[in-house]
């Protein structure tokens, strides 16, 4: 004790206290320095995002990134759409805009506009007030909110059926919601739709199962059902009383036509009158990757149900992130609410789509020019690359070939042979083709 302390202790008491401190000190130090989380294992690298990390770490000047799904110009540069730049100027000049919290459901002008983009301006469901719509953290957030809602209100937790293959995050999202996931057949060895296998697997699903469908530009294959095949799929969905989730990441980006890319959703919702969920992402078709703007639309039977569903969607949001972000929602609603900017957007969608199509053709031509062998005996030629649509080409390269592309040629892609065609440019297409030939010829 300090000499000036007014509290005096007897010598024996003081000695006892000091002895206790000496005994306890090591224990206190050990507790203070213990590593509470030492047993936490390192999480496995994400198969898609991990490609981007490895690419950035590579010092090779001629490296090529065909991994992550983000649009690039012909020069390999990120693109900010002109309509987005113009919308930002309008927003900066509007001094009435504030930075207050949005309500849980999101920005009202965005909500009205986004449902019309996917369901159509003449949608019966919208006209009758049967759509519960929620602004989300892009398409990933929309899927997670949908999963939490289904897990809470579908009765006995249904099994979730996901195409094989599919976007790698689909299974994880629904499993995190406490639901079991399984696969349905989707692609044949020759990269065509295995419609018979798909229908057989969906027919065998228990009634009330969740079916996750890709609205357009299936990820990772780029292979979509025809309109006649969609009708057969709708028959099965109706018979199995399935909970339908249409995951929409590439509307407008796939073909350049917003209406054409939404055909499947509108057929199910309007012509067949089916209840369904539709997620939307504005990452690809608006280039708003970092803004995390998306939506979840739930088409219900009546207006009263839609109100109750939206209230419960908001109840999911409240403890999760409480309020969505505002800037990206304003960007999208500004463009969609301005005729000139909307037309500009649609023109830019055509431009992006056409560049991807031209790179598919250029890659196939480059492979033919050097007489590149096909990746396996299942293929006669490389035409599957040009028959696919959207951002990705499902090449047929196996894991070993993909590993060699990266290690020996500094060309990065996911190990399932998926190429992001946005990463292919006029200046690197010949090198990509030559590398493909090398890894196949020397497999």
Question: What does this protein structure show overall?
Answer:
The protein has 443 residues and is an alpha/beta fold. The chain has 18 helices and eleven strands. It has helices spanning 11-33, 49-57, 82-93, 108-119, 124-127, 138-153, 169-176, 195-203, 227-239, 258-261, 263-271, 283-286, 303-320, 327-336, 339-369, 384-387, 399-409, 429-441, and strands spanning 64-65, 131-137, 160-164, 181-185, 210-214, 243-248, 276-281, 293-299, 392-394, 411-412, 418-420. The protein has a seven-stranded mixed β-sheet. The longest helix is centred in the last third of the chain and has 31 residues, at 339-369. Residues 1-7 have low confidence and may be disordered.
Q: What is the tally of helical segments?
A: 18
* CA-based shape: globular
Q: For the largest beta sheet, what order do the strands appear in spatially?
A: 2-8-7-6-5-3-4
Strand content: 5-15%
Report how far the terminal alpha carbons are from each other. Answer: 78 Å
Oligomer: single chain
Quick description:
The protein is 47% helix and 12% strand. It is α/β, with parallel strands linked by helices.
Question: What's the topology here?
Answer:
Layout: H1 11-33, H2 49-57, E1 64-65, H3 82-93, H4 108-119, H5 124-127, E2 131-137, H6 138-153, E3 160-164, H7 169-176, E4 181-185, H8 195-203, E5 210-214, H9 227-239, E6 243-248, H10 258-261, H11 263-271, E7 276-281, H12 283-286, E8 293-299, H13 303-320, H14 327-336, H15 339-369, H16 384-387, E9 392-394, H17 399-409, E10 411-412, E11 418-420, H18 429-441
Parallel strand pairs: 1-10, 3-4, 3-5, 5-6, 6-7
Antiparallel strand pairs: 2-8, 7-8, 9-11
Helix pairs in contact: 3-14, 3-15, 4-14, 6-7, 6-13, 8-9, 9-11, 15-18, 17-18
